[in-house]
C-alpha cells in the first residue's frame, strides 16, 4: 500500500539570509526558494533535498510516495556486513535519519508531471552523501520495476557520491541490480529519463544514472566516475578547465542535454509528451503527393541538379524540423567520445505521428556551415545516429532520416576514430531495426555517408536532390584525371531523381516549388511531410516480421541482372 507524506520544501528556514556558495553574495531565502534554489546573481544551483526536487517537478498534490513499501526493514540497526569502521554503521544511519528526516538517501513514488503520469525518484545528498547501499538500490529497482509493470515512464534525479562503503560488496552489487532494472525498461519499451545533478559520481554514475533512454544533466553539475581529488592524486597532473562539469560531458557526448533548473520541468514535460503513445493523433497534412512514375518527372541537366542540390539557401534538416515536424526534442552525443553537430536527431511528431528524426545538418551561413563541417559527419555523428535508432527501436518509434551530405568526413581524426566501422554499423543496424524507416534525400546524397541514413523501407528523394556512389568531381578526377569534367561525370553516373526512380533505388520523388526548394521552403516542407506521412501510414500496416523481410529483399535484389535494366515506366 502506498503511503502519502506531505512534500514540504525545506530550503533551510523560511526567512533570513544565506551565503551563495558560487559568488558569496547574501541571498534572501524566500527569493532563493522562488528562484528554485538558483542564485539570481551568478546562476549557482544550490543543492536540493529529495523532497524539494519532487516539489519542483511534480504537479501540486500529485505525488504518492512508495519509499516506505520498498524499504520497511532498513534504517536504524541495519548493518549487513557488521561494518568494522570507527563509527558503527547503525549509528551513522540513525544520525543521517535524524538530520534529514528521511529513512534513506532516496525518495520515490508516482506523480503527475504536466499531466503525464510518471514514477518519480529523487536522491538526497544530505543522507550520507547520497551513497547507494542496499536500500537505495532496492528503491531505484522497485521504482523501475513498478514503471515497467505499469508501463509508466520513469524519471530518476540523482545526487550521489557513489556506492556506500559501509555495506562492502553488497553495495557494489547494487550497480548490477539497478542496471538490470534499467535494462528491463529498455526491453519492454518503457521510457526512462535520468537527470544527473550535482554531484553524481562512482557507483551511481556507473550504473542506473547513465542508462536512461535520455540522460540530462543539470547546469553546472559535477559528474564523473572517479572524483577529481582521486584523479588528481592518481595522474598527478593539472586537470583541464571545466573538467567533469555537465557542459564537459555534453561536449564529450555523454549526455543528451544540459538544462538549467528552471528549464527542467518544461523539458521533461516535452519529452514525456512527444514519446507518449496515447497522445498520437494522426491528421492529414497539406502538400503535393510524391511522384512515383518516371514519365511524370521533368528531365533536367544533371549538373544543373547538382548545383541546385548544393544551393546555400536550400532548406536543411533543422529547417524541415521547424516547418514539417512538431515538438522536436534534440538528443545529443554518441555516449562514447563526442557530439557531432553534422548529425542532428531526436523524437518529434509529423502529422501527429510519433517518430525519431535523424538527419545531416549543413546550415546556411558561413559560421553554421563551418560549425557543422558542411554536413560531413565524423564517426561520432554515425554513432549518435545508431544510438538514436536503438532508442527508436526500444520505444517503437518509426525512424525518419533526412539525408543531405557531400559524404562522410575524410580526415585523419575521422579515420583514427573508426569512420568505416561507424558507417558500417549504422547500415547494419538499419537492416535489422524492428520499426519502419523512411529516408528522404533532401539535397546531396553523398556515398556511404548518405547510405548510413538511407537503408530504409521507403527511400524518397526531392526533385532536385541527387544520390551517388561518389561526387561528380571525385569521379572525374579519378577516371579522367580532371575535376573540370564533373558535369560530364554527373551525366554519366545517373544520379538524378528520374534516373534513380527508374533504377528502383528510390520509391518516390517529392516535388519542389518551381526554381528549387530554396525559393519556397514552406511549400517544400509541406510536400516532404505529405510524402513521409503517406509512407509511414503504408508501413504502419505491415506486420513487424514482414517489414524486416521486405527490407532485406529490397537490398538483396540490387544488382541482380534482371533488376539492372532501367525501368521504362
Ligand atoms: Zn551566486
Provide tags for this entry.
elongated; about 575 residues; 7-stranded mixed sheet; 2 domains; 2-enoyl-CoA Hydratase, Chain A, domain 1; disordered N terminus; alpha/beta; single chain; binds zinc ion
Detailed description of the structure:
There is one protein chain. The protein is elongated, with a radius of gyration of 27 Å. The longest helix is centred in the N-terminal third of the chain and has 21 residues, at 168-188. The protein has helices at 29-34, 50-57, 67-70, 89-100, 134-150, 168-188, 202-205, 228-235, 246-251, 261-275, 302-309, 317-323, 366-371, 379-395, 412-416, 419-432, 447-451, 472-479, 486-492, 497-503, 521-540, 544-557, and strands spanning 17-19, 26-28, 64-65, 106-113, 116-123, 154-160, 192-200, 214-218, 257-259, 343-350, 353-360, 399-405, 437-446, 458-462, 466-468, 508-510. It is built from 22 helices and 16 strands. The protein has a seven-stranded mixed β-sheet with strand order 3-4-5-6-7-8-9, with helices on both faces. Strands 10, 11, 12, 13, 14, 15 and 16 form a seven-stranded mixed β-sheet that branches. Strand 4 and strand 5 form a beta hairpin. It has two domains: 44-76 and 94-275, 2-enoyl-CoA Hydratase, Chain A, domain 1; 281-564, Alpha-Beta Complex (2-enoyl-CoA Hydratase, Chain A, domain 1). Helix 5 runs parallel beside helix 6 and helix 14 (379-395) runs parallel beside helix 16 (419-432). It is an alpha/beta fold. Bound molecules: zinc ion. Zinc ion (ZN) is lined by residues 20, 22-23, 25, 39, 41-42, 44. Residues 289-538 form the CoA carboxyltransferase C-terminal domain.
Amino acid at each position: 500500500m502506498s503511503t502519502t507524506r506531505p512534500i514540504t520544501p525545506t530550503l533551510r528556514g523560511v526567512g533570513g539570509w544565506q551565503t551563495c556558495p558560487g559568488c558569496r553574495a547574501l541571498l534572501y531565502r524566500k527569493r532563493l526558494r522562488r528562484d528554485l534554489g538558483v542564485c539570481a546573481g551568478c546562476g549557482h544551483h544550490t543543492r536540493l533535498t529529495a523532497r524539494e526536487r519532487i516539489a519542483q517537478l511534480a504537479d501540486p498534490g500529485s505525488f504518492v510516495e512508495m519509499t516506505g513499501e520498498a524499504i520497511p526493514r532498513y534504517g536504524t540497526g541495519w548493518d549487513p556486513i557488521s561494518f568494522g569502521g570507527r563509527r558503527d554503521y547503525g549509528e551513522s544511519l540513525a544520525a543521517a535519519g535524524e538530520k534529514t528526516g528521511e529513512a534513506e538517501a532516496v525518495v520515490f513514488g508516482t506523480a503527475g508531471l504536466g499531466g503525464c503520469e510518471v514514477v518519480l525518484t529523487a536522491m538526497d545528498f544530505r543522507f550520507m552523501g547520497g551513497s547507494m547501499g542496499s536500500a537505495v538500490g532496492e528503491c531505484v529497482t522497485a521504482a523501475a520495476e513498478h514503471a515497467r509493470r505499469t508501463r509508466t515512464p520513469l524519471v530518476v534525479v540523482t545526487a550521489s557520491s557513489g556506492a556506500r562503503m559501509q555495506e562492502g560488496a553488497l553495495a557494489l552489487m547494487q550497480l548490477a541490480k539497478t542496471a538490470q532494472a534499467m535494462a528491463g525498461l529498455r526491453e519492454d519499451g518503457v521510457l526512462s529519463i535520468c537527470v544527473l545533478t550535482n554531484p553524481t559520481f562512482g557507483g551511481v554514475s556507473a550504473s542506473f544514472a547513465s542508462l536512461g533512454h535520455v540522460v540530462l544533466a543539470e547546469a553546472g553539475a559535477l559528474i564523473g566516475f572517479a572524483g577529481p581529488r582521486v584523479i588528481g592524486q592518481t595522474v598527478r597532473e593539472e586537470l583541464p578547465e571545466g573538467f567533469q562539469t555537465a557542459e564537459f560531458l555534453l561536449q564529450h557526448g555523454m549526455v543528451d542535454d544540459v538544462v538549467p533548473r528552471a528549464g527542467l520541468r518544461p523539458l521533461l514535460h516535452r519529452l514525456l509528451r512527444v514519446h507518449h503513445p496515447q497522445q498520437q493523433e494522426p491528421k492529414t497534412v497539406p502538400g503535393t503527393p510524391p511522384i512515383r512514375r518516371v514519365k511524370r518527372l521533368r528531365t533536367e541537366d544533371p549538373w544543373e541538379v547538382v548545383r541546385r542540390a548544393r544551393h546555400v539557401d536550400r532548406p536543411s534538416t533543422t529547417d524541415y524540423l521547424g516547418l514539417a515536424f512538431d515538438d522536436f526534442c534534440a538528443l545529443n552525443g554518441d555516449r562514447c567520445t563526442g557530439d557531432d553537430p553534422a548529425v542532428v536527431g531526436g523524437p518529434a511528431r509529423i502529422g501527429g505521428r510519433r517518430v525519431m528524426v535523424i538527419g545531416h545538418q549543413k546550415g546556411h551561413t558561413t559560421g553554421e556551415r563551418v560549425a557543422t563541417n558542411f554536413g560531413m559527419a565524423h564517426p561520432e555523428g554515425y554513432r549518435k545516429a545508431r544510438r538514436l535508432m536503438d532508442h527508436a527501436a526500444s520505444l517503437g518509434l518509426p525512424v525518419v532520416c533526412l539525408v543531405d551530405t557531400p559524404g562522410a568526413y575524410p580526415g585523419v581524426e575521422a579515420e583514427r576514430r573508426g569512420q568505416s566501422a561507424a558507417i558500417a554499423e549504422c547500415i547494419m543496424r538499419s537492416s535489422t531495426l524492428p520499426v519502419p524507416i523512411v529516408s528522404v534525400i533532401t539535397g546531396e546524397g553523398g556515398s556511404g555517408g548518405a547510405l548510413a541514413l538511407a537503408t530504409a523501407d521507403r527511400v524518397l528523394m526531392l526533385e532536385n536532390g541527387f544520390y551517388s556512389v561518389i561526387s561528380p568531381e571525385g569521379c572525374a578526377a579519378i577516371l579522367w584525371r580532371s575535376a573540370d569534367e564533373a558535369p560530364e561525370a554527373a551525366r554519366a553516373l545517373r544520379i538524378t531523381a528520374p534516373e534513380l526512380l527508374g533504377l528502383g533505388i528510390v520509391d518516390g520523388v517529392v516535388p519542389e516549388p518551381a526554381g528549387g526548394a530554396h525559393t519556397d521552403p514552406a511549400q517544400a516542407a509541406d510536400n516532404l511531410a505529405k510524402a513521409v506521412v503517406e509512407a509511414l501510414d503504408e508501413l504502419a500496416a505491415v506486420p513487424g516480421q514482414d517489414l524486416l523481410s521486405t527490407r532485406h529483399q529490397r537490398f538483396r535484389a540490387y544488382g541482380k541482372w534482371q533488376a539492372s535494366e532501367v525501368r521504362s515506366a
